[in-house]
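re: that chain from earlier
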Amino acid sequence: MPDTQHLYRPIRVLHLEDSAVDHQLVHRALERSGIAFTMQRVETLQALQDSFHSASFDVILADYRLPGFTAIDAWNIVLGLEKRPPFILLSGAIGEPAAVAAIKLGMSDYLPKGDMGKLAHVIQRAIEIQKARLAKARADAELAASERRLADFAEHLQATIEQERAAIAREIHDDIGGSLAAIKFDLAWIARHSRDPAMLEHVNVASEMLRHAIGASQRIMMNLRPAILDQGLVAALDWLCTGFEKRTGIKTLFRAAPQDNELDKAIQLTAYRTAQEALTNISKYAQCSQVTIELSDARGVLTLEVTDNGCGIAPADVDKPKAYGLRGLHERAKTVGGWLDVSTRAGLGTSIILSVPLGTGEHADNQEPFNDSRYSL
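^ sequence. v structure.
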């Protein structure tokens, strides 16, 4: 239920005016308008300040020139309030430049004393605009808080996923890897001690299947937890590209500028996962014949670009609600203070660029150019 007492209470007006006659004119103008109001008059800056300690107001009306100060001085006091009411300049002819300057400072409106019949309308409009501004400010603050919570959740989710991947990789290595190794030894023992051709044929078939299983488990472990990152991002991307070309048959070019600085582990993992996800999408959708991956850290920004010459991505597919792959890459980039750009044209391929500020540009001026010797992996 709405607060009807709040909806119908009188408008509380604070009137900064040194003329008792003009104050009475304002009072009569508001009475004639039919609005419910209460009004308090103050004449000095000190009285203005004191009034805010004892009461709250819906609107302030202020003459421009008062003894020893102007409405600008009063406005500077109002600016210090946590919840400042609309401030309306109600004065004689002060000239258009002064009125415009006052509005630019943030005052709500200006009304000449000769147009007193419009006062109630000006007050109500200023109050409504103030309410709309406050509502927008609250909505903006709530949206910003929601975005912060979402970013924190995405970062927590990514960290949790990586921890779970590492745990699964350890399980595969310790349990499945150990069991496969034991089977390999048993098959080797059988092969050494058996002379039955049929038995040896079965052993050979089983050994071949076991070799594939061991290779698959190693590949899964590397995808889950890229231990090769311990050798650096360049080595990890090189290995990733090599495996991608072998699996898909798509020509893959990789080049990297010399890395002068040691990258943070989180940044390395973000870059690696971005390349990994991009290559996965390329293998599924791009219908391309060549992929190029470039890595540089020029001008204090790590840049990873994955480009293909495939069919491109339709704009509708980029913006569709279930484009979780690209959205996940955007969110992952944010966790390390970076951003992701996607450039695509139908029939001309797609380029995904990850950019991550490294926090220092000291090495940028001395950054060596790319090695021109491209190589196919």
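Residues 4-138 form a domain with the Rossmann fold fold (CATH 3.40.50.2300).
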